[in-house]
């Protein structure tokens, strides 16, 4: 009997929900009549190149509790990488080796879970596979807290990160409001080119809390003078002003606030830092009030104790959907979420061609940001609100969360 297997890998930045998609893939394969085994490539595409693979079917077989624990575990069980494949016309050697590995392990489908840069890998592998006439189905499974992948309503990982951001802003408000002195708190939130995550700070508002009082996203040019006027106006009305700002805010000329021109990653992206601190110094110098900046950097990426159950459920479903699509012969595509209703919140799962997704980015629509560029409009709140719903039931031991053992990653 000819064995038919598949392979899965994860890459890019970690999220709370990426392992839920991995669990969905494993569950989909276990129920499949087409596939015998699913292999996990350690550290993204580099695991195939280095022949670092785990037999996930063997590991999970007979241990149903593993899948549920895996789905609740943050970050990446298989590890990650930031490896950029060269174009095969420039250097096809890694492609030749990867597809040879597919033959060796009888791989019929390859699933890559990741964000924008990972979808670039899906696109390149798909194009090369078509060029050589390979029958291996290549399918991307989305994840990114940035929520900037095109052709899908939202991305797994974003809802949980948004829940963490909103919860943190509400707690910062409680911390700030106890002092009857004039103060400004600036909260810098991840988001290089899209402001989805910073916009989620608005979910902290409730019947007694109006913070954040100002929200600045990279989709609108940032003017320091307008910012100072906004803050000064609010200080006349209240003691405490809380500001949410994206790390990627930039001026009218397109220059990032405090972006280091010397720090560029392998995909050509500026490594940003310091927007919040820059604004802190500006307020201190120009307004002379108590001011502090808080940088919410990586904490929201793996905060499984504040995961959105909606996020985890959808991530798992996308993993299973990817397996089902591969069985139908779909390739060169990414699985997607299609929102069918806001209230009640419902979605369908589908797919889109990877060439429409890779190397593109979805920004917050300008009409979802107010005309002054310092807050968001109700349609964006309506879009965000369902994504943070539901609480994950994390298991605890000795007061700490119990996650999957990832000691295999420290050996590589």
UniProtKB/TrEMBL annotation:
Diphosphate binds at residue 13. One of its GO terms (biological process) is fructose 6-phosphate metabolic process. Substrate binds at residues 144-146, 190-192, 247. The keyword Disulfide bond does not apply. The active site is at residue 146. It catalyses: beta-D-fructose 6-phosphate + diphosphate = beta-D-fructose 1,6-bisphosphate + phosphate + H(+). Its main location: cytoplasm. Mg(2+) binds at residue 116. GO terms for molecular function: 6-phosphofructokinase activity; diphosphate-fructose-6-phosphate 1-phosphotransferase activity; metal ion binding. Its EC number is 2.7.1.90. GO terms for cellular component: cytoplasm. The keyword Magnesium applies. InterPro entries: ATP_PFK, PFKA, Phosphofructokinase_dom, PKF_sf, PPi-PFK. Residues 6-295 form the Phosphofructokinase domain. Its cofactor is Mg(2+). The record marks 143 as: Important for catalytic activity. Homodimer. Belongs to the phosphofructokinase type A (PFKA) family. PPi-dependent PFK group II subfamily. Clade 'B2' sub-subfamily. Catalyzes the phosphorylation of D-fructose 6-phosphate, the first committing step of glycolysis. Uses inorganic phosphate (PPi) as phosphoryl donor instead of ATP like common ATP-dependent phosphofructokinases (ATP-PFKs), which renders the reaction reversible, and can thus function both in glycolysis and gluconeogenesis. Consistently, PPi-PFK can replace the enzymes of both the forward (ATP-PFK) and reverse (fructose-bisphosphatase (FBPase)) reactions. This is Pyrophosphate--fructose 6-phosphate 1-phosphotransferase.
């Amino acid at each position: 009997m000819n064995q038919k297997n598949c392979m899965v890998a994860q890459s890019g930045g970690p999220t709370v929900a990426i392992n839920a998609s991995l669990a969905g893939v494993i569950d989909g394969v276990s129920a499949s009549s087409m596939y015998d085994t699913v292999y996990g490539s350690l550290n993204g595409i580099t695991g195939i190149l280095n022949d670092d693979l785990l037999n996930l079917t063997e590991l999970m077989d007979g241990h149903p509790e593993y899948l549920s624990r895996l789905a609740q575990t943050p970050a990446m069980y298989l590890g990650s990488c930031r490896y950029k494949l060269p174009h095969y016309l420039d250097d096809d050697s890694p492609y030749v080796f990867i597809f040879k590995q597919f033959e060796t392990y009888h791989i019929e489908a390859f699933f890559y879970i990741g964000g924008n840069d990972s979808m670039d890998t899906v696109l390149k592998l798909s194009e090369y596979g078509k060029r050589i006439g390979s029958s291996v189905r290549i399918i991307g499974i989305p994840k990114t807290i940035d929520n900037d992948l095109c052709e899908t309503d939202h991305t797994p990982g974003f809802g949980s990160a948004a829940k963490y951001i909103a919860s943190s802003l509400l707690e910062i408000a409680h911390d700030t409001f106890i002092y009857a002195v004039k103060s400004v708190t600036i909260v810098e939130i991840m988001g290089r080119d899209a402001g989805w995550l910073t916009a989620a700070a608005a979910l902290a508002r409730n019947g007694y809390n109006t913070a954040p009082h100002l929200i600045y996203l990279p989709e609108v040019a940032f003017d320091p003078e307008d910012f100072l006027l906004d803050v000064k106006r609010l200080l006349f009305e209240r003691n405490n002003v809380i500001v949410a700002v994206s790390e990627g805010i930039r001026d009218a000329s397109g220059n990032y606030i405090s972006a280091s021109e010397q720090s560029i990653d392998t995909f050509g992206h500026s490594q940003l830092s310091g927007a919040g601190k820059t604004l802190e110094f500006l307020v201190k110098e120009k307004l002379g009030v108590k001011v502090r900046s808080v940088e919410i950097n990586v904490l929201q990426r793996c905060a499984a104790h504040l995961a959105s159950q909606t996020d985890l459920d959808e991530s798992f479903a996308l993993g299973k959907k990817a397996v089902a699509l591969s069985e139908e012969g779909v390739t060169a595509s990414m699985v997607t979420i299609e929102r069918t209703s806001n209230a009640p919140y419902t979605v369908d799962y589908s797919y889109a061609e990877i060439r429409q997704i890779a190397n593109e980015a979805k920004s917050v629509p300008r009409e979802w940001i107010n005309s002054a560029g310092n807050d968001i409009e109700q349609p964006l709140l309506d879009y965000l609100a369902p994504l943070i719903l539901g609480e994950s039931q994390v298991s605890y031991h000795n007061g700490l969360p119990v996650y999957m053992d990832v000691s295999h990653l420290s050996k590589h």
